[in-house]
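Q: What would this chain look like folded?
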Amino acid sequence: MIVTYSAIVLYMLLAGVVSALLTVVAWRHRSVPIIQPFLLLMAAVTVWIFGYAGELMSSSLSTVLLLNDIEYLAVPVVPVAWLFLVLVYTGRGHYLTRRTVPFFFIIPVLVWLLVVTNLLHYWFYAGFFPMTLDDTTIWIYEHGPLFWLHIGYSYLLTFTALVLAAGRLFSSTRLYRRQSAILVLAASIPVFTNIAYVSPSIPFPEYDLTPISFLLTGIILAIGILRYQLFSAVPVAYSRVFSAMGDGVVVVNRKNRVLDLNPVAEEIAGFTSTDAIGHELGAVIPELVPVTEASFSKKDQCRIEIRRTKKGPRYFDVLITPMSEGLVADGAYLCLLRDITDRKQAELALSEANKKISLLTNITRHDITNKIVAVHSYLELIRELATDPVQIDYLGKQEQGLMAMNEQIAFTREYQQLGTEAPVWQDAGTVIRGAQAHVDLGKVSLVSTIGSWEILADPMLDKVFYNLFDNAVKYGGPGITTIRISSHCDGNDLVIVVEDDGAGISAQDLPRMFERGYGKHTGLGLFLSKEILAITEIAIHVTSLPGQGARFEIRVPPGKFRGTA
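A: My prediction, written as structure tokens:
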């Protein structure tokens, strides 16, 4: 084998080194979907370049044909890889499935078989003849009919990819317009070089300069990767719907760099997409950084309210959602910003009003309580002086009225606290024991077999059981001996039963047991109990028959109870 060297060979080897380096870089990020077709492309180009360089350095026809056979493992794959790359880049990667991808390689496999068996039929290459240039022997191929079918298929795929990539040139984001221009330019150079090679009138009929043109392609792609974040900041979810959304949308990667944002987010940030994309989120919307970092650590959705003072105070409800893995090398997160300024201002105004009302209520309740204490003291003094039985009876009724007033004022204090704190998980057994401690049961025994359950309810849950126990003792009659608390599951609900063996409740009282003001005393205890439970959608109802005791059922819906070890 006679080895020859020329400037063409040196350029070819340089192009091969560049494509090989890009192949190595792509291999390190092969888990990213858009890198996978790029890896296939660069690997195929590398085989093509080094194979053709070997052809140019050999004067032996058998060696040249062997290297050509090796080249054609890669040559027909190049246009297929270009198409795959553009499909993924333009958001059409879902067309590439395990069923569709093999069809694209049918023609490349047939082409390779035709090349390998060409000496049996000469359908791909009609013949070979040597040419001597500068004391170098180069073998020239005469193209057969099936060669042109291969060229037609390759050009069809390549120009389809060029059209798809050119569509991104009209993107509203400058960065992605530049990326698309880089892709189109990088693909066009080898395409038109190859067209020049296969055309009848070419300036250098002895050389196929297509492999060497990949040197320029590699340089252009390297510039795109280093300067314009090609393949690391690809267009994500940018469409008419994305642009027309009324909420702000910002896409960031795990390095907290902005990948994309819609017009509403541009207005919120005070930056155009050109100025924001590729920059750190802290320089665009710094208030988002803590919540994005929290979402990164949890790899899950994260929600928070933020306040921005730029252009006046504005409030936003922010939802951070991880996007599908592999869209970019570092993962992508979608930040949805909904302007809740009007709602927040109304909430703040309502909160301020409630504070003022609460303050006024506390002061008024305190003053009224003091007046009641004073009136009660005067009644006690009058009672010591009174001798007329009628007067004594009237004084007793006045005292009862004062006691009722005092109880209603106490109720307003408790009702005012209702819902002021967030519901919490509470151990049912602990709550029952706490309520029992505040009730004078006398000779009545309390038996609890409720089991190990936690209930999500208002912190005033103990008031519910206190009222049920207190009512049972007061109105159960002299025959009451036991109050029982148990639980069971009914479908998806947990049912807590509080029942006694007392006198029971009359049929006419049952429908109105939980009405405000209805009952033998103030009629406020059961009403308050129902309101406490309703905060977390827990229902309570009563079933009773006269002489057979009272039975209250507390029905806890799914999600509001859980078992404990």
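Residues 1-5 have pLDDT under 50 and may be disordered.
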